[in-house]
Design a protein that fits this description.
The structure holds two protein chains of two kinds. Chain A is an alpha/beta fold. Chain A has nine helices and ten strands.
Chain lengths: 266, 268
C-alpha cells in the first residue's frame, strides 16, 4: 500500500481498513464511461455517504469495490492488495471480508432467516457444511446474537419471504455482519423502505458497524439521511466526484452542482 | 362546419390487401385439406364397416378374463411402474446436469450452452418407442431397454423445463452470495437450488406421470411391462385378456393422474 496516501491509521484493534481508489474507470460499452477517473481515499472507520442523481455511477462505484462489476481501469488498494487485480479464490477471500447490503435485500427467500444470516459464512466454510446444514456451533451462536442485535431474535425459523421490507433489510445487515467484514458496502439500503423504517435501518447500520469499528460506504438518494448519519459525503455527477467533505460543508450550491437544475430545492 | 355536414368517417378492420391475403389463406387451407384427404386413400368399404368392427372388438373383449391378472398382468403392471420410476429417476439426474450446461446464467459459454441445448432437443425429438427399439437391439428385450428408453427420451422435456427454471432464478440472491465470497458450488447449492426446488419437484412428478403412460406401451416393441402382456394377448387373439390389460392401463393412468395432481398441489 502506498505510504503517501493521506489516511489515519484507524481502528482500535490496530487493523488498517482504509481503501484507496485511484483513477477508477468503468465502461459498460466501449468508449462510454459510467465512471470517469474516480480517485477517493476512504479512511478505515466511519460512514461515507455517496450521493448523486440516478445513473451517475454511484452503484457502479460500490460494485467495482467488491468486483460484482469489473472495472475497466484503475486500482483499489485494500488490506494490502489491489482489489482490481484479484481473480478466482483470491477474489473470494477478499470478498468475504467485504459485507454488502442491497436495495432489494437479496435474501434467499425460500430459506429461513437464520440460514440467510449463516449464508454470510459461505466464503469461510467448506461446501459440504452448507449442503448438510452443519454449520459450526460458533457460527450458529454468532448468527443468533446478530439476529438479536438487529431486533429479529424471535424470527430465526421464519422463512425470509414472510418478512416485511424493513425486517428483510435487518436480515441483510445481519448477513453482512456475519461475514466479520473489514468494510461494509450498502447500495441504496433504504430506497425501497418507508421514511420511518429508512431512519431505523440507517441507525442500525451506523450503530452496529460503529461499535465494531467497520468502515461503511453507502449509496443513498436521501440527502437528509446522508447528512444525519455520515461523517463524510461524496457527491457525484456524471461519473465524477464533484463534492467531497463533511456534512456541515454541504450547501445548496453543492446540491445544485450534484443534481443540476434549479427550483427543486425551494 | 356543423356535425351534420361533416363527411362520414370510414373504418375498416382490414385494408384491401389484407383482405385479399386472408381470402387466399382460407382458399389454400381448403385445397390442402382436400388434397390430404385424397392422399390418405380411405377405402370406403372399411369406413362403412368400422362401427360394426368396433362393436365386434368390444364384444370379444367381454367378459374380461380376470383370472389372467394374477398369472401375468400383475407382474407386468409392477414392471411397468418400476420402468417408469427408475427411468424418471435416471432422467432427472441426467437432465439436471444437461440443464446446468444449457442454462446461460450458470454456464457462461455459448458453445457449451449449444451442446446442452442440442442434447435436450435430440433426446426429445426421438420418440420413446424409437429409443426402445434402439435399446432392445443393444440390450435385448426386457425392462432394462424400456427403462433406458424412458430415461433418455425424458431428458429433453425435463432438462428444458429445468434449464428454464434455472434461468428464471432471481439474480439478486446470487449476487449477494457472490459478494459474500461464496464458491460457485456453494452459490449453486444455497442460491439457485432453493429457488429452483419447487419447479424441480413439480417437473419430476409430472414427468413420472407421463412416463407411466409411455412405459405401459413400450412392451409392444420389447420394452417389458404391460405392453408385453398386451402384445402376447393380441398375437394370440385372446381378446378377453387384451381387454384386461387395457382396463388395467386405464385404471393406472387415472390413479397416477389423481395422485400427481394432489402431490403437485402440495408442492406448489
Amino acid at each position: 500500500m502506498d505510504a503517501k496516501a493521506p489516511f489515519k491509521p484507524a481502528a482500535a484493534d490496530g487493523i488498517d481498513r482504509s481503501l484507496v481508489i485511484r483513477h477508477l474507470r468503468k465502461e459498460y460499452r466501449s468508449g462510454i464511461a459510467v465512471l470517469k477517473d474516480v480517485s477517493l481515499t476512504f479512511e478505515g472507520r466511519g460512514m461515507t455517504a455517496i450521493i448523486g442523481p440516478s445513473g451517475t455511477g454511484k452503484s457502479t462505484l460500490v460494485r467495482c469495490i467488491n468486483r460484482l462489476v469489473d472495472p475497466t481501469a484503475g486500482e483499489m488498494l485494500f488490506m494490502g492488495q489491489d482489489l482490481a487485480k484479484l481473480r478466482g479464490s483470491a477474489l473470494r477471500m477478499a470478498r468475504r471480508r467485504i459485507g454488502m447490503v442491497f436495495q432489494e435485500y437479496n435474501l434467499v427467500e425460500r430459506l429461513t432467516v437464520i440460514e440467510n444470516v449463516l449464508c454470510g459464512r459461505l466464503g469461510y466454510l467448506p461446501v459440504w457444511r452448507a449442503w448438510m446444514r452443519k454449520f459450526p456451533p460458533g457460527d450458529i451462536d454468532r448468527a443468533f446474537r446478530l439476529l438479536d442485535a438487529v431486533g429479529l431474535g424471535d424470527f430465526s425459523n421464519i422463512r425470509a419471504d414472510q418478512l416485511s421490507g424493513g425486517q428483510r433489510q435487518r436480515v441483510g445487515i445481519a448477513r453482512a455482519l456475519m461475514q466479520d467484514p473489514d468494510l461494509i458496502l450498502a447500495d441504496e439500503p433504504t430506497s425501497s423502505l418507508d421514511p420511518k423504517t429508512s431512519v431505523e435501518i440507517m441507525e442500525l447500520i451506523a450503530r452496529r458497524a460503529g461499535e465494531r469499528d467497520i468502515p461503511v460506504i453507502v449509496n443513498i438518494h436521501n440527502v437528509e439521511l446522508a447528512r444525519r448519519y455520515a461523517d463524510r459525503i461524496v457527491g457525484m455527477a456524471k461519473g465524477e466526484v464533484v463534492f467531497d467533505g463533511p456534512p456541515s460543508a454541504l450547501e445548496d450550491s453543492h446540491l445544485l452542482t450534484i443534481y443540476g437544475g434549479e427550483g427543486w430545492l425551494e | 362546419m356543423s356535425p351534420e355536414t361533416a363527411a362520414l368517417r370510414e373504418w375498416d378492420r382490414f385494408t384491401l390487401r389484407e383482405r385479399i391475403g386472408r381470402s387466399a389463406f382460407y382458399i389454400l387451407a381448403a385445397i390442402a385439406l382436400i388434397w390430404s384427404l385424397r392422399t390418405i386413400e380411405i377405402i370406403p368399404e372399411f369406413l362403412y364397416d368400422a362401427p360394426k368392427q368396433t362393436a365386434d372388438l368390444f364384444v370379444r373383449m367381454w367378459p374380461i378374463d380376470w383370472s389372467w391378472y394374477p398369472k401375468v398382468v400383475h407382474e407386468a403392471l409392477i414392471e411397468t411402474l418400476h420402468t417408469a420410476t427408475l427411468g424418471t429417476i435416471l432422467a432427472v439426474l441426467l437432465a439436471g446436469l444437461t440443464a446446468l450446461l444449457a442454462a446461460r446464467n450458470i454456464t457462461r459459454s455459448v458453445t457449451l450452452n449449444l451442446i446442452g441445448r442440442f442434447i435436450l432437443v435430440a433426446t426429445r425429438s426421438v420418440h420413446a418407442m424409437v429409443w426402445a427399439l434402439f435399446f432392445v437391439a443393444v440390450f435385448g428385450p426386457g425392462a432394462l431397454a424400456g427403462t433406458l428408453a424412458i430415461a433418455v427420451h425424458s431428458i429433453g422435456f425435463t432438462g428444458k423445463l429445468l434449464s428454464e427454471a434455472i434461468e428464471e432464478a432471481r439474480p439478486g440472491p446470487i449476487e449477494a452470495l457472490t459478494a459474500a465470497g461464496a464458491s460457485p458450488l456453494a452459490i449453486l447449492l444455497k442460491g439457485y437450488w432453493p429457488q429452483v426446488k419447487p419447479a424441480f419437484l413439480g417437473i419430476a412428478v409430472f414427468r413420472w406421470d407421463i412416463n407411466v403412460r409411455e412405459s405401459a406401451v413400450l412392451g409392444l416393441v420389447g420394452g417389458g411391462g404391460l405392453g408385453m402382456a398386451l402384445d402376447t394377448a393380441l398375437s394370440n387373439l385372446y381378446w378377453d385378456q387384451a381387454g384386461l390389460v387395457l382396463y388395467v392401463i386405464f385404471v393406472v393412468v387415472i390413479a397416477t393422474e389423481i395422485g400427481v395432481s394432489w402431490l403437485r398441489g402440495k408442492i406448489i
